[in-house]
Write a structure and sequence with these properties.
- With about 375 residues, the chain is α+β, with helices and mostly antiparallel strands.
- It contains 13 helices and 11 strands.
- Strands 1, 2, 3, 4, 5 and 6 form a 6-stranded antiparallel β-sheet that branches.
- Helix 8 packs across helix 11 and helix 11 packs antiparallel against helix 12.
- It starts with a helix and ends with a helix.
- The model has no long low-confidence stretch (mean pLDDT about 95).
Length: about 375
């Protein structure tokens, strides 16, 4: 049986509007296998095979998505919006379940395709980044009254920065690939900032920062934009929605979108924080969040950007020390280049700390 015949058999397990007439690979994601499905009436769907190597409990993952999207739908309807366009719609199986497990133990799900949209893989202008910030800020606002602690951790300790530091130190000590001597400068850079690593998690443990529902993958291409207006329509890729700190969501967007260089740029002299893009995102994020964030949360947003960037640098260096076993690489030294760009960005954030703080200061 070919892959298309197999997929047609999978689709028969879902409540689609009518007969399938076309199936093709879709998107640029690296985690789940995704297909665009068209039916005879022209209605389209997104079929995904969930990557259970990364997400070990599909039932909990889909429970998170079903509960959060149901909450969002209520908010969207109350605001007079279109819930089938402004949040993801899970299509149930013929048995009424949120996903289907095939005979090989692979898990599949189907979403309604949101039409007349576009996405951006990189920031092309400040206005787009501002709109991205507004979308994720609004996402926080709509979910501010949802009990975050009731969600499952789809990837445990995903943004547990102190644990990431311990993993890094273990990799240095074990030095299984004998690479530590060549990265002494990077190791020292990270160790010099050890005391800052737990600041946000300590504030959360002390009750000074609230635990919220966080997206945990706030890249620009996880926002669907209206193809005509470029206004945000819907936030997608909800697999990593979990309890967390909004500073991490804010920070990861900055880490990825306000860096003037590619994530694996070998020449770190090209790496810097674009204050124009940082300020644009911060403005949009705070506008979208409205009055739902505490003053302490707003105050710690710049620290979130620095912490998550340092955390990602540690993760890249840890993987490099362990032999590049987690992140896919296309060339030798790519993880080390990735690490160095993150550390260079941290250093530039330190130089621009006052401007970063001023952009989010509560007035």
């Amino acid at each position: 049986m070919g892959i298309l015949e197999e997929i047609r058999g999978i689709l028969n397990k879902f409540r689609l509007a009518d007969e399938v007439v076309d199936i093709k690979p879709h998107g640029s994601g690296h985690i789940n296998h995704t297909f665009l499905v068209t039916t005879g009436s022209g209605k389209r769907y997104i079929l995904q095979r969930i990557n259970t190597d990364i997400f070990h409990n599909t039932a909990e993952l889909m429970e998170n998505i079903m509960h959060v999207t149901a909450h969002l739908r209520e908010k969207i309807v109350c605001a007079g919006g279109d819930p089938e366009r402004e949040t993801m719609t899970v299509i149930p199986t013929t048995d009424g379940a949120a996903y289907y497990s095939d005979a090989q133990g692979q898990d599949w799900r189907v979403y309604l395709c949101i039409e007349h949209i576009t996405t951006l893989d990189r920031v092309e202008q400040a206005a787009d980044f501002c709109e991205s910030g507004r979308a994720f800020g609004h996402f926080q606002a709509m979910l501010a009254d949802y009990p975050a602690q009731t969600l499952h951790e789809t990837i445990p300790d995903f943004h547990n920065t102190p644990k990431r530091y311990r993993d890094f130190e273990r990799a240095v000590a074990e030095d299984v690939c004998h690479r530590a001597s060549g990265v002494a400068e990077e190791i020292a850079f990270i160790r010099a900032r050890k005391d800052e690593i737990s600041v946000l998690t300590d504030l959360a443990q002390n009750g000074e920062l609230p635990i919220r529902i966080t997206h945990n993958d706030t890249k620009l291409n996880n926002i669907l934009l209206d193809e005509q207006t470029h206004k945000a329509v819907c936030i997608v890729d909800l697999d990593t929605i979990m309890p967390g700190l909004c500073a991490y969501d804010f920070g990861d967007a900055i880490r990825f979108g306000a860096n003037t260089a590619a994530e694996d740029e070998p020449d770190v002299s090209k790496v810097s924080l674009s204050l124009e893009l940082y300020e644009a995102y911060a403005r949009g994020f705070l506008e979208g969040a409205g009055d739902r964030l505490t003053e302490k949360e707003i105050e710690t947003l710049p620290l979130g950007a620095k912490t998550i960037t340092l955390e990602q640098g540690m993760r890249f260096l840890t993987d490099y020390l362990q032999g590049d076993i987690y992140y896919h690489t296309e060339r030798d030294g790519q993880n080390l280049d990735r690490c160095r760009t993150q550390l260079a960005l941290v250093a530039d954030m330190e130089r621009k700390r006052e401007q970063m703080n001023a952009a989010v200061r509560v007035r």
